[in-house]
Design a protein that fits this description.
Helix content is 37%, strand content 23%. It is α/β, with parallel strands linked by helices and 206 residues long. It starts with a helix and ends in a 5-residue tail after the last strand.
Protein backbone atom coordinates (compact mmCIF):
# COMPACT_ATOMS: atom_id res chain seq x y z
CA UNK A 1 0.00 0.00 0.00
CA UNK A 2 2.89 2.36 0.77
CA UNK A 3 4.33 1.82 -2.71
CA UNK A 4 0.97 2.59 -4.26
CA UNK A 5 0.66 5.77 -2.19
CA UNK A 6 4.13 6.87 -3.35
CA UNK A 7 3.29 6.10 -6.97
CA UNK A 8 0.07 8.10 -6.65
CA UNK A 9 1.92 11.02 -5.09
CA UNK A 10 4.44 10.96 -7.93
CA UNK A 11 1.55 11.18 -10.39
CA UNK A 12 0.14 14.14 -8.46
CA UNK A 13 3.49 15.95 -8.58
CA UNK A 14 3.66 15.26 -12.31
CA UNK A 15 0.23 16.82 -12.78
CA UNK A 16 1.26 19.85 -10.71
CA UNK A 17 4.23 20.50 -12.94
CA UNK A 18 6.79 21.27 -10.24
CA UNK A 19 4.59 23.34 -7.91
CA UNK A 20 5.27 22.91 -4.18
CA UNK A 21 2.12 21.43 -2.59
CA UNK A 22 1.52 21.47 1.19
CA UNK A 23 2.49 18.37 3.14
CA UNK A 24 -1.12 17.81 4.19
CA UNK A 25 -2.01 17.29 0.52
CA UNK A 26 0.31 14.29 0.52
CA UNK A 27 -1.34 13.00 3.70
CA UNK A 28 -4.73 13.37 1.99
CA UNK A 29 -3.48 11.36 -0.97
CA UNK A 30 -2.37 8.60 1.42
CA UNK A 31 -5.85 8.53 2.96
CA UNK A 32 -7.40 8.28 -0.50
CA UNK A 33 -5.17 5.35 -1.41
CA UNK A 34 -5.73 3.50 1.87
CA UNK A 35 -9.49 3.91 1.87
CA UNK A 36 -9.88 3.69 -1.87
CA UNK A 37 -8.71 0.09 -1.61
CA UNK A 38 -11.51 -0.61 0.89
CA UNK A 39 -14.43 1.43 -0.36
CA UNK A 40 -15.12 2.88 -3.79
CA UNK A 41 -13.76 6.44 -3.84
CA UNK A 42 -12.18 7.09 -7.23
CA UNK A 43 -11.99 3.72 -8.95
CA UNK A 44 -9.69 0.90 -7.89
CA UNK A 45 -8.09 -0.24 -11.17
CA UNK A 46 -6.59 3.11 -12.19
CA UNK A 47 -6.60 4.79 -8.79
CA UNK A 48 -3.26 6.55 -9.15
CA UNK A 49 -4.17 8.39 -12.32
CA UNK A 50 -7.72 9.12 -11.15
CA UNK A 51 -6.56 10.75 -7.91
CA UNK A 52 -3.91 12.80 -9.70
CA UNK A 53 -6.45 14.01 -12.27
CA UNK A 54 -9.01 14.90 -9.60
CA UNK A 55 -6.47 16.95 -7.64
CA UNK A 56 -5.28 18.70 -10.80
CA UNK A 57 -8.85 19.57 -11.76
CA UNK A 58 -9.58 20.80 -8.23
CA UNK A 59 -6.59 23.15 -8.32
CA UNK A 60 -7.64 24.57 -11.68
CA UNK A 61 -11.14 25.12 -10.30
CA UNK A 62 -9.56 26.91 -7.35
CA UNK A 63 -8.18 29.53 -9.72
CA UNK A 64 -11.77 30.58 -10.46
CA UNK A 65 -12.90 30.79 -6.83
CA UNK A 66 -11.73 34.35 -6.22
CA UNK A 67 -11.22 35.39 -2.62
CA UNK A 68 -13.15 32.41 -1.28
CA UNK A 69 -14.51 32.81 2.24
CA UNK A 70 -17.42 30.50 3.09
CA UNK A 71 -17.40 27.56 0.68
CA UNK A 72 -20.05 24.91 0.02
CA UNK A 73 -19.11 21.75 -1.88
CA UNK A 74 -22.29 19.97 -2.92
CA UNK A 75 -21.96 16.25 -3.55
CA UNK A 76 -18.44 16.38 -2.14
CA UNK A 77 -17.74 12.69 -2.76
CA UNK A 78 -14.15 11.89 -1.76
CA UNK A 79 -13.36 15.59 -1.26
CA UNK A 80 -12.91 17.01 -4.75
CA UNK A 81 -12.62 19.93 -4.83
CA UNK A 82 -13.63 20.88 -1.26
CA UNK A 83 -10.89 19.14 0.73
CA UNK A 84 -8.22 20.14 -1.80
CA UNK A 85 -9.34 23.77 -1.56
CA UNK A 86 -9.20 23.65 2.23
CA UNK A 87 -5.66 22.28 2.13
CA UNK A 88 -4.55 25.02 -0.24
CA UNK A 89 -6.50 27.82 1.49
CA UNK A 90 -6.52 26.89 5.21
CA UNK A 91 -8.34 30.06 6.28
CA UNK A 92 -11.37 29.37 4.12
CA UNK A 93 -14.40 27.86 5.85
CA UNK A 94 -15.57 24.80 3.95
CA UNK A 95 -18.83 22.86 4.25
CA UNK A 96 -18.93 19.47 2.54
CA UNK A 97 -22.40 18.21 1.65
CA UNK A 98 -22.40 14.46 0.98
CA UNK A 99 -25.55 12.39 1.45
CA UNK A 100 -23.86 8.98 0.95
CA UNK A 101 -22.97 7.88 4.46
CA UNK A 102 -19.80 5.95 3.58
CA UNK A 103 -18.38 8.97 1.78
CA UNK A 104 -19.46 11.37 4.51
CA UNK A 105 -17.75 9.12 7.05
CA UNK A 106 -14.56 9.14 4.98
CA UNK A 107 -14.64 12.93 4.77
CA UNK A 108 -15.19 13.33 8.50
CA UNK A 109 -12.38 10.90 9.29
CA UNK A 110 -10.03 12.62 6.86
CA UNK A 111 -10.74 16.03 8.37
CA UNK A 112 -9.95 14.61 11.81
CA UNK A 113 -6.78 12.78 10.74
CA UNK A 114 -5.45 15.87 8.93
CA UNK A 115 -6.47 18.05 11.89
CA UNK A 116 -8.36 20.48 9.66
CA UNK A 117 -10.15 23.35 11.36
CA UNK A 118 -12.99 25.30 9.81
CA UNK A 119 -14.34 22.37 7.81
CA UNK A 120 -17.74 20.71 8.32
CA UNK A 121 -19.25 17.55 6.88
CA UNK A 122 -23.03 17.42 6.51
CA UNK A 123 -24.33 13.96 5.61
CA UNK A 124 -27.51 15.30 4.04
CA UNK A 125 -28.70 16.64 0.73
CA UNK A 126 -27.66 20.26 0.24
CA UNK A 127 -31.19 21.00 -0.96
CA UNK A 128 -32.28 21.05 2.68
CA UNK A 129 -30.08 24.14 3.15
CA UNK A 130 -30.78 25.96 -0.08
CA UNK A 131 -32.70 28.75 1.63
CA UNK A 132 -29.66 29.59 3.75
CA UNK A 133 -27.98 31.81 1.17
CA UNK A 134 -24.86 31.93 3.29
CA UNK A 135 -21.98 30.94 0.99
CA UNK A 136 -19.54 33.07 -0.98
CA UNK A 137 -18.65 30.19 -3.30
CA UNK A 138 -20.58 27.05 -4.16
CA UNK A 139 -18.71 24.33 -5.98
CA UNK A 140 -19.38 20.84 -7.26
CA UNK A 141 -17.85 18.20 -9.46
CA UNK A 142 -20.05 15.73 -11.31
CA UNK A 143 -23.15 16.98 -9.50
CA UNK A 144 -25.47 16.81 -12.50
CA UNK A 145 -26.64 18.97 -15.38
CA UNK A 146 -26.56 22.72 -14.91
CA UNK A 147 -30.28 23.08 -15.43
CA UNK A 148 -30.86 20.87 -12.39
CA UNK A 149 -28.04 22.22 -10.19
CA UNK A 150 -28.32 25.99 -10.69
CA UNK A 151 -31.61 26.46 -8.79
CA UNK A 152 -29.99 24.78 -5.77
CA UNK A 153 -26.85 26.89 -6.17
CA UNK A 154 -28.90 30.08 -6.33
CA UNK A 155 -30.42 29.29 -2.94
CA UNK A 156 -27.05 28.59 -1.34
CA UNK A 157 -25.17 31.65 -2.61
CA UNK A 158 -25.16 34.97 -0.83
CA UNK A 159 -25.26 38.19 -2.85
CA UNK A 160 -22.15 38.56 -4.97
CA UNK A 161 -21.36 34.84 -4.79
CA UNK A 162 -19.96 32.58 -7.50
CA UNK A 163 -20.45 28.99 -8.62
CA UNK A 164 -17.43 26.95 -9.73
CA UNK A 165 -17.69 23.55 -11.36
CA UNK A 166 -16.05 21.25 -13.91
CA UNK A 167 -17.88 20.19 -17.04
CA UNK A 168 -17.14 18.00 -20.04
CA UNK A 169 -17.23 19.10 -23.64
CA UNK A 170 -20.53 20.50 -24.86
CA UNK A 171 -21.59 21.77 -21.45
CA UNK A 172 -22.90 24.97 -23.05
CA UNK A 173 -25.98 23.03 -24.16
CA UNK A 174 -26.91 22.71 -20.48
CA UNK A 175 -27.22 26.49 -20.14
CA UNK A 176 -30.45 28.05 -21.18
CA UNK A 177 -31.87 31.54 -21.43
CA UNK A 178 -33.42 32.49 -18.13
CA UNK A 179 -31.19 30.22 -16.05
CA UNK A 180 -30.28 33.27 -13.97
CA UNK A 181 -26.52 32.72 -14.36
CA UNK A 182 -23.83 33.94 -16.75
CA UNK A 183 -20.37 32.62 -17.53
CA UNK A 184 -17.62 34.48 -15.65
CA UNK A 185 -14.53 32.37 -16.39
CA UNK A 186 -13.29 29.16 -17.93
CA UNK A 187 -10.04 27.15 -17.82
CA UNK A 188 -9.31 24.00 -19.87
CA UNK A 189 -8.70 20.88 -17.80
CA UNK A 190 -5.84 18.54 -18.58
CA UNK A 191 -6.21 15.34 -20.55
CA UNK A 192 -9.18 16.57 -22.54
CA UNK A 193 -11.38 16.31 -19.45
CA UNK A 194 -13.36 19.44 -20.29
CA UNK A 195 -13.26 22.80 -18.54
CA UNK A 196 -13.38 24.40 -15.13
CA UNK A 197 -16.00 27.14 -15.30
CA UNK A 198 -17.33 29.84 -13.01
CA UNK A 199 -20.86 31.19 -13.20
CA UNK A 200 -22.33 34.24 -11.49
CA UNK A 201 -25.98 35.08 -10.88
CA UNK A 202 -27.36 37.65 -13.26
CA UNK A 203 -27.88 41.06 -11.72
CA UNK A 204 -31.46 41.88 -10.99
CA UNK A 205 -32.78 44.86 -12.87
CA UNK A 206 -33.65 47.82 -10.73
Amino acid sequence: MRDRAQETWNRVLEELGGAEPPEKLREYVEELVIWGARIHLTGREKMEGAIAAQISDSLLMLELAGDGGDIADIGAGAGFPGVVWKLMRPRWRVTLFERKQRLASFLARTAAVLELEGISVIAEDAARYQAAGGFDVVTSKAAGRLGEVLPLVAGLLRSGGIYVTAKGEGWESEMYEGSGFSLAGRIPLGGGRGEAISLVPDREET
